[in-house]
UniProtKB/TrEMBL annotation:
<keyword id="KW-0813">Transport</keyword>
<comment type="subunit">
    <text>The cytochrome bc1 complex is composed of a cytochrome b (QcrB), the Rieske iron-sulfur protein (QcrA) and a diheme cytochrome c (QcrC) subunit.</text>
</comment>
<dbReference type="GO" id="GO:0005886">
    <property type="term" value="C:plasma membrane"/>
</dbReference>
<keyword id="KW-0677">Repeat</keyword>
<dbReference type="Pfam" id="PF00034">
    <property type="entry name" value="Cytochrom_C"/>
</dbReference>
<dbReference type="InterPro" id="IPR009056">
    <property type="entry name" value="Cyt_c-like_dom"/>
</dbReference>
<dbReference type="Pfam" id="PF13442">
    <property type="entry name" value="Cytochrome_CBB3"/>
</dbReference>
<keyword id="KW-1278">Translocase</keyword>
<dbReference type="GO" id="GO:0005506">
    <property type="term" value="F:iron ion binding"/>
</dbReference>
<feature type="domain" description="Cytochrome c">
    <location>
        <begin position="143"/>
        <end position="221"/>
    </location>
</feature>
<dbReference type="InterPro" id="IPR050597">
    <property type="entry name" value="Cytochrome_c_Oxidase_Subunit"/>
</dbReference>
<dbReference type="InterPro" id="IPR036909">
    <property type="entry name" value="Cyt_c-like_dom_sf"/>
</dbReference>
<protein>
    <recommendedName>
        <fullName>Cytochrome bc1 complex cytochrome c subunit</fullName>
        <ecNumber>7.1.1.8</ecNumber>
    </recommendedName>
</protein>
<dbReference type="InterPro" id="IPR009152">
    <property type="entry name" value="bc1_cytC-su"/>
</dbReference>
<keyword id="KW-0349">Heme</keyword>
<keyword id="KW-0408">Iron</keyword>
<feature type="binding site" description="covalent">
    <location>
        <position position="62"/>
    </location>
    <ligand>
        <name>heme c 1</name>
    </ligand>
</feature>
Length: 263
C-alpha cells in the first residue's frame, strides 16, 4: 500500500533568517537611494527657506562675534557686503568659527556640513552684494597652465612660493601652502582676500585667468618633483641647508676617516 506523503507545514529552519536578510537588503537599498538623492540636491540660493536656515545657524554660532544682524562687534567685523564667497571660504576651510585668537585664523576641519556652509553663505549674501561662489567651470581648472604659472609667479609666488608650498610673513602670520586646496576655495581666496592676502578682482585678474592659476596649481599638485627629493619645494634656502649639512658633513667625515687611517 502506497503511503501518501503528507505536508507537515513546517518551514525550513533558515527561512526566517533568509526573509530577515532580504528585508534588510531592500530597506538598506531604499535608504541608500533616498540618501543619495538628498545628498545630490543643491541648496537653492534664492530660496527663503535657505536664507532662514542660514540665519538660524548664524545666530546660533556666529552672532557672538559678528552681531545678531552681522553688523559686527568689538570681537568681529561686519559681514554685510562680504558676499557668499567669503563665507564659503572661511567656514568651508574651518577657519571660522575661530579655534582661538591669534595673528590669523588657523585652518581646521569644517564644523558644518556642505549644505550648512552654503546656507550660511547665502544668508550673508542676502544682506548685501558681494563676491559670489564661483561656477564649476571656473573652479575646476582645465585652463592654460602656462599662463597660470606666469600669473602665479608675478602675483602670488612672493608669499606662497613658486610651487605653492607657503611661506612665513611678519608678526607670526604666514601664507598657507596651496597643496590639496580645492579649486573653489582658491578662487574664493583670490576674489575675497582673506587674512593678509590682497583682493584680486576681475580688473586685476580676469575670471579666465583665475581659472588658469587654478589649473597651474592643480598641475603642480599632480606632478611632483621628478628629480628626486623636493625638500618641501621651499627653494634655494632649503636646498643650500641640505647640501651644507649632509654634503659638507659627509666630506668632513670622509676626511676624518682618511686621516685616522693614515695614522
Amino acid at each position: 500500500m502506497t503511503r501518501t506523503k503528507r505536508r507537515t507545514g513546517r518551514r525550513h529552519p533558515l527561512a526566517a533568517a533568509a526573509l530577515l536578510a532580504l528585508g534588510l537588503v531592500f530597506t538598506g537599498g531604499a535608504y541608500a537611494a533616498l540618501s543619495t538623492g538628498t545628498a545630490q540636491a543643491e541648496v537653492d540660493p534664492n530660496s527663503q527657506q535657505t536664507i532662514e536656515e542660514g540665519k538660524k545657524l548664524f545666530q546660533a554660532n556666529c552672532a557672538t562675534c559678528h552681531g545678531l544682524d552681522a553688523q559686527g562687534t568689538g570681537n568681529g567685523p561686519t559681514l554685510i557686503g562680504v558676499g557668499a564667497a567669503s563665507v564659503d571660504f572661511q567656514v568651508g576651510t574651518g577657519r571660522m568659527p575661530m579655534q582661538m585668537q591669534g595673528p590669523q585664523a588657523q585652518q581646521k576641519p569644517a564644523q558644518f556640513t556642505d549644505d550648512q556652509v552654503k546656507q550660511l553663505a547665502y544668508f550673508i549674501a542676502s544682506l548685501g552684494p558681494g563676491p559670489e561662489i564661483p561656477s564649476d567651470h571656473l573652479a575646476s581648472g582645465g585652463g592654460d597652465a602656462a599662463n597660470g604659472a606666469e600669473l602665479f609667479r608675478i602675483n602670488c609666488a612672493m608669499c606662497h612660493n613658486v610651487a605653492g608650498a607657503g611661506g612665513a610673513l611678519t608678526e607670526g602670520k604666514f601664507a598657507p601652502p596651496l597643496t590639496n586646496v580645492s579649486g573653489v576655495h582658491i578662487y574664493e581666496a583670490m576674489v575675497t582676500g582673506p587674512q593678509n592676502m590682497p583682493v584680486f578682482n576681475d580688473l586685476n585678474i580676469s575670471p579666465e585667468d583665475k581659472r588658469d592659476v587654478i589649473t597651474y596649481l592643480k598641475y603642480v599638485q599632480d606632478n611632483r618633483s621628478p628629480g628626486g627629493f623636493e625638500l618641501g619645494s621651499l627653494g634655494p634656502v632649503a636646498e643650500g641647508l641640505f647640501i651644507w649639512i649632509f654634503g659638507l658633513g659627509t666630506i668632513v667625515a670622509i676626511t676624518v676617516w682618511i686621516t685616522a687611517k693614515s695614522n
